[in-house]
Write a structure and sequence with these properties.
This protein is of the alpha/beta class. It is 27% helix and 24% strand. It has 3 domains: 38 residues; 208 residues, Rossmann fold, CATH 3.40.50.300; 170 residues, Ribosomal Protein S5, domain 2 (2-Layer Sandwich). The N and C termini lie far apart (77 Å). The chain binds thymidine-5'-diphosphate (TYD) and magnesium ion.
Length: 455
Amino acid sequence: MPPKGRSTYRCTECGAEHPKWVGRCEGCGAWNSVAEEPAARKRRSGGAAERRAGAPSAQPPIRLSAVERGGVGRWKTGLDEFDFVLGGGVVPASLTIVGGEPGIGKSTLLLQVAARLEAGGISTLYVSGEESPEQVRLRADRIAEDCGRVHLLPEVRLEAVMAHAQTLHAGVLVVDSIQTTYSEDLEGAPGNVGQVRECAARLMRFAKETGTAVLLVGHVTRGGVIAGPKTLEHIVDTVVYFEGDPAHDYRVLRAVKNRFGSVDEVGVFEMTGGGLRPVPNPSAAFLSGRDPAAPGSAVTALMEGTRPVLVEVQALAVRSSFGTPQRVANGLDQRRLALLLAVAERRAALPFHELDVFVNVTGGVRLDEPAADLAVMAALCSSVQDRPLPADAVFLGEVGLGGEIRPTAGTDRRLAEAVRLGFRRAFLPARTRTTAGVETIPVPHVADLARRLAA
Ligand code: TYD
Ligand code: MG
């Protein structure tokens, strides 16, 4: 046992205790899973420790039927796409983490949110551990919202952050970011697993005890995880990710966990010279700039949460100048592309083994749904055949290894969105019925698709 008052180290995967920090847990062999735990502190009366020790809590147990109904109160920011993704607005006494890669626009989003909440009469404290007040002021001057009344605090020590939030009676506390915040009770450097976990856990307690809504910025690594282990997601109420290709202006805010709303809902924003602007009609935005007369361009309808969104898939196949042909996928899983190319080669006799293939999804959107397979296949066929696809057609269907086209869920909703944007034809798996009012073109197999498009 380490001496009294010193920190202990515990594996977040298997719970094994270690006398000092190690990169790999000796118990379960997991890498980078050992985190520092705060030294045991003196019990204060009424503290959580005492309650655990047997003293009854202030409130006696009550029957569930005696619990008052009533929904959760929410603070609307008026930034519609943000409110929508959170389930209707910011929930008091909740902890939300906003994750995203550096440079995607997290600080901009939360500064806009802070300004809007403050304008609505909710006192807001924006804590920046990454940027100086001058840098934050520069950003504030760019965005359309008036940030003048937002309280700003450059601070990295968690204890100071919470003390200031309490003195200010802040309704909303923004902490930018969890990786720069640290607690003086822990020895580890800011950003390490132990610090990040402990700071998040304490901010959660702070939110519940004071009724403050805490919004936490979390940088994600290239692998897409917040601060290494996923353990943070269990600690907080809501996790939203801010995604997009920094080279494009569109940003997608996606809820992956929400104790106060549904998950998988997305909100679309556009990064402009004056901050982030909600995009109320994402389909039209994603299709703007499309040239339907260009070979290799196909349109499909994705389900983003409960909303259908149309996107354009582009493919370019050119004769390979090296021995091993290149496969480059943007916005699409590289392995999914490899699978579709193998199916096209084997089941529709398209000569991809001698072609370099590039696939791109416009607007920085990701195709994570098998329903988009048929559009990728159509774009590939169109590029190989060097013939444009019908301009008013959408493609929906999953491609199986045998080359068969399988039905997908939500066909009517997806097609209704396509009709709304002027599409009149839909290439669909065989025997698909729809009430959406489009001409349906059944394609049971990728060979049928290739034949049909070549005709
Ligand atoms: P930022 O919010 O700093 O990203 P993060 O906090 O996720 O690291 O913003 C990143 C980019 O947004 C930066 O490259 C500048 C750009 N930007 C605009 O294009 N318009 C604007 O009005 C603002 C404030 C930023
Ligand atoms: Mg930032």
